[in-house]
TrEMBL record:
This is CLUMA_CG004031, isoform A. Pfam families: AAA (PF00004). GO terms for molecular function: ATP binding; ATP hydrolysis activity. Residues 621-732 form the AAA+ ATPase domain. The lineage of its organism: Eukaryota, Metazoa, Ecdysozoa, Arthropoda, Hexapoda. GO terms for cellular component: cytosol; peroxisomal membrane. InterPro entries: AAA+_ATPase (IPR003593), AAA_ATPase_domain (IPR050168), ATPase_AAA_core (IPR003959), P-loop_NTPase (IPR027417). GO terms for biological process: protein import into peroxisome matrix.
Length: 806
C-alpha cells in the first residue's frame, strides 16, 4: 500500500510539473475517463448490428478504381469501426454474418438448406448464423457508425442467395475478424462461368473480347454470384467499343455467373482471384437467369424521374404478381388466363421508356424493345413471320419484358385500316405463348402508345390486362423532375472531376449535397412557368441552361436568368403550333379605361383563384366570361391581361380554325384544345370568333323545380324559399339561365363574406362554404346582371311549334 501511494505521489508530482496551469489530479482523471470511454465504445461495437446499405455501382467503381484487386466484394465502413477491427492494414479482411435482426422472406426447403450449406464456408459456419463471405474492408469518411456500404450488384446477390427480405432497409449483419485457420482467396487456376442470356444476338468473338478486357485486372470472384459487365468505352477500350458500337447502343451490359473455382491447393474453392493469362477461364452454355436488381442506377437517387413516381409505382404493382408471387398464385393466374399484357400510354418524350427500363431494372429482368414499324409490312405473311421471330427471341432470354414500341401502328394495312388477319394471328400466338410458357421465368408484354387517346381497335384494346396513362405533370411533379435532373448532373460532374484529377481529396466531398436552397427556389420558379411541358421538354430546358457552367461540382450553381432565357426560346419555337401555352406580358396598366370591366373580371376570375375552397367545392363553377363587341375594342388584350395578372397560361384559338369538313374532325379539334388546356392548368382559353361555333339552344322549363334542384348545392337564408326565388324570375328561361342566376347569387354571397373577412369582421372559421347563406338580395343582384340566352324570335318560334303540336 505504501508503494502504491509512492507511485501515486510521483504521478501527481510529474503531472504538476508537466501541466502547471491545472491541478495535478486532472490528468489521471482524464486517463480514467478516456479508458472508460474506449471500453464502452468497444463494447458497443461488439454488440452492434450493422445495417447493410447498397451504393450505386458506378460510384462504387470510382471508390475502388485504384485498388490492386478489383472486387464486388468490398465494403466501406466508418473509420473508428475500421480501426477497431483491423490491426494490420495489409490484411484488411473481415467476415460478415447475417444478423438475427434481418427479416427472412420465407423458410427454406430441405433441398435449399442443403444447397445453402454447400455454398457457405465450412470453416466459418456456426449454429446461430452463416458467413456470407470474406470481405475486403476500407474506411470512408461520412459513413454512420452502424452502416456498411456495399456495391448494389453484390447486395442483391446476397438478397437472392440467402432468401432475405426484399425490403433493403432491413438487412443487418455482424462483423467478425478472421479465424486463425481461415484462408484468404488465392489466384485461381481454373474458373467456370455461365453467360446469362441477353435479348440480343451476341457473337462468341465479342464475348471473348469483353471477358479478356474485364479480366485484364485481377478480379475477386465468389462461387454462385452473378457479375455485371458494363459495356462502356472505359471498360472495353476504344477499339472494341467502336467495332461493336451498334450492338452496345442496345445492349448496355452483360451478366455472367461464376459456378466453379479451382486453385493449386483445392479443387473446390468458395472464392478466388481470376486474372488473364494466369487463370484458365471456361465459358459454359448460356442460361436464362434473373439478373441482380438495380434501384439506384448510377446515382444516389432513383433511376427514374421523381415526377413520374405514380406511373412507376402503378406499372411495377401491375407486374409484381407475375414476377414475385408464389407458385400457387402464378398457377391460378395462368389457369384463369390472366396474362401480363400491359399498355403504357403517353405523348412522345413523356418518359415511357425511362419508366419501363427502371421497372425492369428494379425487378431484375431483361428488357427487349421491338419496333412495330419494323414488324408491320405490306405483306401479311412477312408480318406474321416477324411476330413469330420477336416472340421467339423473348423466350430465349426469360425472364424478360418484351416491349412493342409505337404500338399505335400495329395491325394496320397500307391504307391505315385494321388488318384483321394480323390482329387475330397476334392474339392466337400470344395465347399459345402464355399457355405453354412456365411462369417461373415470366415473359411480360408491354405496348407503348405515343398518345393519350385510347386505341380505336376493340380487338387490340381487349388484349390488355391494364392500361396505364402518363398524364401531363402538375407543378410539383415538374419540380421533382427538374430536381432529379439537377441531382444527376451534380453527381456526373463530381465523377468527371475525380476522373480528370481536378478533385483529389474526393472522400471529403459531400456526395449527398446535390442542391442548395437557392437552387431549389430557382427550380420551383421554373416549374411554375413550364405548364404543359413533358419530361423531354424539361430535360432539354435543363441541359440548355447548364451547358456553360463549370465542370467543378464545387462551383456548380444554377442561374435563373439563363433558365428564363432558354425557356423563352423554347416557347418561341412552339409558338407556331395551335394551342401552345404561354403567359403573355400584358398588365392592367397597359389597358386604358374599361375600369368597370376590369373590376368585374377580377371579381369573376381572381376571387375563385384566391378562395377556391369556397367557390369551387359547390359545383357551381363559373370560370367563363363572354366578351362581345366590335373588332378592335380590346377583347384579346383583356384576355391576355387576365392571364398575366393571375399568372395563368394563355391559349388562343380562332373559332373557324376548329371547323373541318370531315365528319368528327371538328369535335376532335375541340377535344385537343381542351386537352392542352387541362395539361397547362391553370389556363385561360381564349376562343376568338366564338359565334362561328356556338348555335342557339335551350328550351324553357319549370323554373321552381329547377331552382329547387340548384339551390340544394348551397345554404339559403331561413326567410327565403325557392317559391319566392321563382316568382322573381321571368317564365321563359332555360335551365342554363337558371344555373347562371343561382351561380351569380352564390358568388354575390361569397364576395360579401370575403369583404367581411378582409375588414376583419369575421374569422377563419367563417370562411367555409357551409357558413355562407344566400339571401333574397343576392338573387335580386344576380337578376340585374342576367341576360337571357333566348331572344324574342326564338321564343315566338317555340310557342308556334308548341301550339301546332300541342
Amino acid at each position: 500500500m505504501t508503494q502504491q501511494s509512492a507511485y501515486l505521489k510521483t504521478l501527481l508530482y510529474v503531472c504538476k510539473l508537466r501541466y502547471p496551469r491545472f491541478p495535478s489530479h486532472y490528468f489521471p482523471v482524464y486517463l480514467i475517463a478516456k479508458f472508460v470511454q474506449e471500453f464502452q465504445f468497444r463494447f458497443h461495437i461488439r454488440q452492434l448490428n450493422f445495417q447493410l446499405r447498397s451504393i450505386p455501382n458506378r460510384y462504387f467503381d470510382f471508390l475502388c478504381r485504384n485498388h490492386e484487386i478489383q472486387s464486388d466484394h468490398t465494403i466501406f465502413i466508418n473509420q473508428k469501426v475500421f480501426d477497431y477491427y483491423i490491426y494490420q492494414k495489409d490484411v484488411n479482411f473481415l467476415n460478415l454474418t447475417v444478423s438475427d435482426a434481418t427479416k427472412k422472406s420465407k423458410k427454406l426447403s430441405a433441398a435449399e438448406k442443403v444447397v445453402k450449406k454447400i455454398l457457405d464456408s465450412p470453416e466459418n459456419s456456426s449454429k446461430s448464423n452463416k458467413v456470407l463471405a470474406v470481405y475486403q474492408v476500407f474506411p470512408l469518411d461520412g459513413i454512420p457508425i452502424n452502416k456498411i456500404f456495399i456495391k448494389e450488384n453484390s447486395f442483391w446477390n446476397f438478397m437472392d442467395r440467402y432468401k432475405l427480405s426484399s425490403d433493403h432497409e432491413q438487412v443487418y449483419v455482424n462483423m467478425s475478424m478472421l479465424a486463425a485457420t481461415q484462408k484468404l482467396p488465392t489466384i485461381s487456376t481454373k474458373a467456370n462461368i455461365f453467360l446469362v442470356n441477353s435479348p440480343y444476338d451476341v457473337s462468341s468473338t465479342f464475348v471473348d473480347d469483353v471477358l479478356s478486357e474485364y479480366f485484364k485486372k485481377p478480379r475477386l470472384l465468389y462461387r454462385n454470384h452473378t457479375y455485371r459487365l458494363d459495356l462502356t468505352e472505359d471498360e472495353l477500350g476504344n477499339f472494341i467499343f467502336c467495332e461493336n458500337f451498334e450492338l452496345i447502343t442496345k445492349l448496355k451490359r452483360i451478366y455472367f455467373k461464376c459456378v466453379h473455382l479451382e486453385s493449386r491447393g483445392s479443387s473446390f474453392d468458395l472464392a478466388g482471384i481470376v486474372v488473364r493469362n494466369l487463370t484458365s477461364l471456361h465459358q459454359m452454355t448460356t442460361i436464362n437467369y434473373q439478373v441482380p436488381k438495380v434501384t439506384f442506377g448510377d446515382h444516389f437517387i432513383t433511376n427514374y424521374p421523381s415526377g413520374l413516381n405514380n406511373v412507376y409505382e402503378s406499372l411495377k404493382s401491375s407486374l409484381m404478381p407475375f414476377v414475385a408471387s408464389s407458385e400457387a398464385s402464378k398457377s391460378m393466374l395462368k389457369a384463369r388466363k390472366i396474362f401480363p399484357i400491359i399498355q403504357l400510354m403517353g405523348e412522345r418524350g413523356s418518359g415511357k421508356r425511362k419508366v419501363l427500363q427502371s421497372v425492369a431494372d428494379s425487378l431484375g429482368i431483361h428488357l427487349h424493345f421491338a419496333e412495330c414499324c419494323d414488324i408491320v409490312t405490306s405483306i401479311p405473311t412477312q408480318t406474321e413471320q416477324k411476330i413469330l421471330y420477336t416472340l421467339h427471341r423473348a423466350t430465349n432470354c426469360q425472364p424478360v419484358i418484351l416491349c412493342f414500341n409505337d404500338f399505335e401502328f400495329f395491325g394496320k394495312n397500307n391504307e391505315g385500316h385494321e388488318d384483321d388477319r394480323v390482329i387475330n394471328f397476334f392474339r392466337v400466338e400470344l395465347e399459345k405463348l402464355f399457355t405453354k410458357h412456365n411462369f417461373d421465368n415470366p415473359i411480360i408484354i408491354v405496348a407503348l402508345v405515343n398518345s393519350n387517346q385510347p386505341l380505336k381497335s376493340k380487338k387490340i384494346s381487349g388484349l390488355f390486362l391494364e392500361t396505364i396513362a402518363i398524364h401531363p405533370m402538375e407543378k410539383e411533379e415538374r419540380f421533382r423532375s427538374l430536381l432529379w435532373y439537377h441531382q444527376r448532373e451534380y453527381f456526373d460532374r463530381l465523377c468527371y472531376a475525380i476522373k480528370i484529377g481536378k478533385i483529389e481529396n474526393y472522400i471529403n466531398i459531400n456526395i449527398f449535397k446535390y442542391v442548395d436552397q437557392k437552387d431549389l427556389q430557382i427550380l420551383r420558379s421554373i416549374a411554375e412557368q413550364t405548364q404543359g411541358f413533358i419530361l423531354g421538354d424539361l430535360r432539354v430546358l435543363y441541359q440548355k441552361s447548364i451547358d456553360d457552367f463549370s465542370d467543378d461540382p464545387r462551383n456548380f450553381q444554377l442561374n435563373e436568368d439563363t433558365f428564363k432565357k432558354q425557356l423563352a426560346e423554347i416557347k418561341k419555337c412552339f409558338s407556331d403550333s395551335i394551342g401552345t401555352p404561354e403567359i403573355p406580358r400584358v398588365k392592367w396598366d397597359d389597358i386604358g379605361g374599361l375600369a368597370n370591366l376590369k373590376t368585374e373580371i377580377q371579381n369573376s376570375i381572381g376571387l375563385p383563384l384566391r378562395y377556391s375552397h369556397l367557390i369551387m367545392r359547390k359545383n357551381l363553377k363559373r370560370s367563363g366570361i363572354l366578351l362581345f363587341g366590335p373588332p378592335g375594342t380590346g377583347k384579346t388584350l383583356i384576355a391576355k391581361a387576365v392571364a398575366t395578372e393571375c399568372n395563368l397560361s394563355f391559349l388562343s384559338v380562332q373559332g373557324p380554325e376548329l371547323l373541318n369538313m370531315y365528319v368528327g374532325q371538328s369535335e376532335q379539334n375541340v377535344r385537343e384544345v381542351f386537352a392542352k388546356a387541362r395539361a397547362s392548368a391553370p389556363c385561360v382559353v381564349f376562343l376568338d370568333e366564338l359565334d362561328s361555333l356556338a348555335p342557339n339552344r335551350g328550351v324553357a322549363g319549370d323554373s321552381e323545380l329547377v331552382v329547387k334542384a340548384l339551390t340544394k348545392k348551397f345554404q339559403l337564408k331561413k326567410d327565403l324559399t325557392t317559391k319566392k326565388i321563382a316568382e322573381l324570375i321571368q317564365p321563359d328561361v332555360t335551365g342554363a339561365d337558371l344555373y347562371s342566376i343561382c351561380s351569380n347569387a352564390w358568388l354575390s354571397a361569397v364576395r360579401k363574406q370575403v369583404k367581411k373577412y378582409e375588414d376583419e369582421k369575421c374569422n377563419d372559421d367563417d370562411m367555409i362554404a357551409d357558413k355562407i347563406h344566400v339571401g333574397l338580395e343576392d338573387f335580386k343582384k344576380s337578376l340585374t346582371q342576367f341576360v337571357s340566352s333566348l331572344n324574342q324570335v326564338d321564343m315566338e318560334y317555340f310557342h308556334k311549334l308548341q301550339s301546332s303540336f300541342g
